Input
Amino acid sequence: MNRREYLKKSLAGAALLGTAGLSIPSTAKAIMTDTFDASTNRYTLPDLDYAYDALEPHIDAQTMELHHSRHHQGYVNGLNNALGKLAEARDTGDFSLVKHWSRESTFHGGGHFLHAMFWKIMSPNGGGEPSHAGLRDAINRDFGSFEKFKSHFIAASTAVEGSGWGIMSYEPNGGKLVIHQAERQSDLTMWSTTPLLMVDVWEHAYYLRYQNRRRAYVEAFFNVINWDEVARMYEEAVG
Output
């Protein structure tokens, strides 16, 4: 089986991205395919484009190192294991645990995908407001203003029950930007949308510095958003 066939089979059969039905920009697809090792048929942890301490003081180096090297690696390991178990089930015909391993592939696949994008939409030179005219105009049109968007995004992300993500996506049917949540990396996901901006609000993403002050962490996140990357994916999403 070649790389393309394996990826197609994994995506279709195991809901790899954890957000089945989403339209994924080519930038995001590249992030996923670049983390796939065709020689071993396994996914790998992507390197960061910056040092662990590069997002200081907003996100501390120790949190970044633990988040990337342990938590994200855990999702990669879990995804590879789940896909392997589903492959075994197809070979043996024993699907008695298919619900469990399908859920595991969704959970860990969603974790791998969202984290791989999360690292890309942050930058030491981030923050401020988007300079891209199309994205800026869309935010103003769909949320009223950048400040209203920011307030909405912070409120939605802070209000995620338990663990999950706050996400801004492009909804192609209405041709507009929307804000939603993804609890446990898959629950409450909006179908047919394209994720453009996401913030991880699991406690492991912020607790060392912010303790239980999730809102303060999400507010600080706005200082490291890589709006150029978000704008690039927005352009692809709107076609």
User: Anything to note?
Assistant: Residues 3-43+60-120 form a domain with the Helix Hairpins fold (CATH 1.10.287.990). Residues 38 and 67 are 25 Å apart (CA to CA).
